[in-house]
Amino acid sequence: MSGRLVRWVCAAAVAGVLAAPGPAGALPEPDPGPGGEQSVAGLLTRLQELYGEAEEATETYNATEEKLKERRAEARALTERLAAARGSLYGSRIAAGRLARQQYQGRSDISPYVRLLLARDPLHALDQGHVVLRAARERKATVDRLTGAERRADVLATRARAALDAQLRLAEERKKERDAVRSRLGDVEELLASLTPEQLADMSRLEETGATASQRAFMASGALGSAARAPSRAGDAALSYAVRQIGKPYVWGAEGPDSFDCSGLTSQAWAHAGRKIPRTSQEQWAKLPRVPLSRLRPGDLVVYFRRATHVALYLGGGKVVQAPRPGARVKVSPIAANPVLGAVRPDPEDKPMSGYRPPPLPRGAMSGGDAGYDSPEGAS
C-alpha cells in the first residue's frame, strides 16, 4: 500500500463489534443514507467484509505455502535417494558386466567345477566344491544386487516424479491464492481511497465505541473466570517472544523476523519456545487442544471469528498480543476487540511455572487499531 493508504488504514480500524461479544457479534447490514450514500456503519461493515475476505485468502495462501514447503523437502529427499540408488545401480551393472565377461572368456569360477568332476582326491574335491559353492553364491548376490538396485531406482524415480508434479501443482495454486489476496487488498485500497477524512474519523470512532462496549460486556460476563494463572515455561517463552515483536508491521504471509501476519506471529512465537505448531489460524484451531476461556493462561492462543480466520496470544488480564491486519502493527489489544471463537493450548501437558512475572510492555504497546476481520459468509 502507499504510505497515505497505510495511514488511512491505521486511522480507520474497521472492525468494531456493536453487538454482544462472541462468535455471533456483528455490525448491522449496510444502510444507505440520504442521497443513496452509505452510512458510516455501512461503510464499516463493507470494510469488515473486504478485510475478512483478505484475511481468509491469506490463511488459505499460508496453508498452501506450508504444503509446498513439505513437498519441496520431500522432492529434495527423494532426489538424493534416487541419486544414491542410481549410483548403486551403476556399481551393480559394472559387477554384472564383469561376471558376464568372465563367463564368456571361460575365466569364471565355473572351471573349478569341471576340475571337481575330474578330481581323484576326495579331500581336494571337497575343497573344490567349497570354491564352486562360494562362487555360485557370489554370482547370485551380484544378480540380486542388480535386480534390487533396478527395482529401487524405478520406485524412487516414480515417487520423485510424483513429488515434482505435486510441487508444480501447489506452486500454481499458491500463485492464484497470492493473486486473490492482492485483489482483495486492492479492493480495500480502492474503498479507502474513496472516503473523506471525515468518514474515516467517524469510522474510527465507531470502531472504538464498539470495541470498548464489547470488551466491557465480555469482562463483565465472567467468561475468563476470576483466577489469575501462570503460563508454562514454554508459554512464557512464546509470550515473551511475541511481546518483543510489538511495533513490527503486519504483512500478509509473513512469519518474521521483520514482519508478521496473525498466525505467523503465533506460530513463530511457539517455535521459539521449542514447540512446532500449525502455521495457519484455522489449523491451529482444528489441531491444537481446546481450552475453556475460563482456564486461559498466558501463552494460550485465542482464536476469532466463525471461520477461525484470526488468532492472538493471550497476555493475561483480558488482553492479547496480536498482528491485527494490513497497515497495522503488532500490538496489545483487548481480548474482545474481535468476536472470540475459543482458545487452544499448544502445551496442555506442561505445568504452570512458579514465580511468574509478566513480560514488560514497551511504550505505546496498545496504540493503533485492534481489529482483525471476519469473513462475511459466516461459519463453514
Strand-helix topology:
Layout: H1 3-11, H2 40-104, H3 111-118, H4 122-193, H5 197-220, H6 233-244, H7 262-272, H8 281-287, E1 301-304, E2 310-316, E3 319-322, E4 331-334, E5 340-344
Antiparallel strand pairs: 1-2, 1-5, 2-3, 3-4
Q: How many individual β-strands?
A: 5
| Model regions low in confidence, pLDDT < 50 over at least 5 residues | 1-37, 374-380
DSSP helix count? 8
Structural class: alpha+beta
Coarse shape: globular
Our Rg estimate from Cα atoms comes to 32 Å
**Biggest sheet overview:** 5 strands, antiparallel
Measured as a percent range, the helix fraction is 40-55%
Tell me the β content. Answer: 5-15%
Strand order of the largest sheet: 4-3-2-1-5
Chain-averaged pLDDT: 74
Q: CA-to-CA gap between the ends?
A: 30 Å
Give helix and strand order, one letter per element, not per position: HHHHHHHHEEEEE
What does this structure look like?
The protein is an alpha+beta fold and 380 residues long. It has a domain at 62-185. The protein has eight helices and five strands. The protein has helices spanning 3-11, 40-104, 111-118, 122-193, 197-220, 233-244, 262-272, 281-287; strands spanning 301-304, 310-316, 319-322, 331-334, 340-344. It has a five-stranded antiparallel sheet. Strand 3 and strand 4 (331-334) form a beta hairpin. The protein is globular, with a radius of gyration of 32 Å. The two termini are 30 Å apart. Residues 1-37 and 374-380 have low confidence and may be disordered.
